Amino acid sequence: MLNKVSLSPVRYSQARRADVAANTVQKSQSSVNFAGTKTSALKLASAYQALYGIKNAKTLNFTGAMELNDFEKSIITPKEIRIPNLLEIPENIDLPLKKMPKGYEKLNAAGLNVIKESSEGLDKYTVSNDKGNIIFIGKVDPNRAQLPVITYKQGKFMPEITVKDPSLGSKAIKMFSGSELIGEGISLKMPGQYEPTPNEGFRDVSFTGRTVITTLNKEPRTISAVDAYVESGLQKNAIRGDYADLVEKYDPTVIIPAGGFGERFFNITREYENKPSAKLPTDERYRIIGTTLNLAASAGVLRGENDDVKYLSQNHEIKDGAGVYYVSKYKTDGGAIAEGLSRDIIRNDRDAMILNADIFTNADISRTYKALKTLPNAALVIPYYPVNPQRAKSFGLLGIKEDENGNLQIKEFLEKPQYTSDAPMPNEFTQPGKYDEAMEQFRKVQSAINPKDESQFLANPGLYFLSDKALKVLMAQGILTPDETGLGGNVMPKIVKLANEGKLLDEEGNKMKVYTVPLEAKGGKTAVWDDIGTAEAYLKLIKDVANEVRLHGTSEQNKYYGVPEFVLNDFAKNADLQSGIVYDSKEAKDALGAFCEKYAIGSVRGNIYVAGH
């Protein structure tokens, strides 16, 4: 039987519900399903208790199924708690801290406190988290004729304040940690680190088409984003890679996994859409997936004529038509790729370049492809990107061993290690054998140290280059199957293991090998690479690009050289390096100007994004 939480013992007036509902600015359109888990029901009840000032909730009853109305969905979702307007809360909010079970710890649905107090004619709102750390302070003059609507959101990744006002039109001010907005009778501050100028060392199928894109979520948006790039002719302007002639000679297939739900990017998009189709501060022709399409274009795969893009549709949201193939739904894109190969939708008689769809890089992938074609018996080449020990904990790492010719062969595929530069200590473990297991993992991680710089580790940037010989063997022997769905978690580690055991043989019986080479930009320079996975990383990237344009223009001295020139210029004109504000357009900049004039804002700075809502 499905679970239901009975809220009848938690009494709040219908009039109060209507009052808060009237002040709700943004309502979630997504369905919410709390059925089946007692934990979710408890979280929901805790949210009601907090939002309506209830201090003594009664025992909860679990019977039957539960439905949420639109207003209830606007208050709590599976991803966040949302206070529609801080300035409208009638009393303090105290969300009691509850012990969250494993897997729910990062939802941050417990331990939220909002204190409202009045002093010297101002209303002061202080928000703190479960550790007692203050994460927002707001002061407003309640006697002003008009005040903006200030929405607070606490979710999986970070708190956010959204400011809306008629003077902003369709735009909104999104404040993240390390930002402030101060004017007459209004002061909003999000404590946290803010750097006015980025540090110099920042980024501490069988068909005739050449490109295959696997999709899962919001598929029509993905198509629209790809079409806008292809139809605009931007691929003709891509800076040609050093070995584009070699790529054109062998004409490999480019595979772009574009599934996923973009949960980590929710603070920017405000929609659960797939991140590749999300907007960058450029015109509509170039969204996040445009970076990956540009990699293919610079390598000579997308040429601006006879570009035939195919889609493997996992969720079947794409209308049936030419170039659309329906496949089963998988947890990750690896299964869709395997099914495409097994059904001869993706050709296995050509090399394949699998390129992540939600990255920002100026890499010249024709250089990595050259390694695939020239290294002895190469089955797989994964380029490495150097990262510091702390950042290494967020990536898959490549453990390597140098062969007799000085080539780096991949020996270990290490996913997000807990220990990098600091070894585990015995007093951290109570269960027998756990310390030994941790030390074994630590020893393996040391094989991923960069041989050119011992202060760095070799991270996997999510770019994979497979030879046609390897594809044939993997399919013929049933090694690459739809059941093995994770590219980084399942498929690639399995290929590495088989190669190192000498069990990955080509049709002539030769042992195939797996290699890594540095991820390089045109001319052999170290490439700049970033997974723009969170709002904070997104804003830092834009400001870093703007700083490079300020220093070097769009010349070869710019470390992002290789990214389309208009993208670099758009980033620069939409970022204010002095204040730290990023705009999604000129209209957003004008809107903030109107807001500042209306409220006599004297200081606005920090990690702030002004964009459509």
From TrEMBL:
A Pfam family per the record: NTP_transferase
Nucleotidyl transferase domain: residues covered: 255-547
InterPro entries hit by this protein: NTP_transferase_dom (IPR005835), Nucleotide-diphossugar_trans (IPR029044)
Name this protein carries in UniProt: Nucleotidyl transferase domain-containing protein
Organism: Candidatus Galligastranaerophilus intestinavium
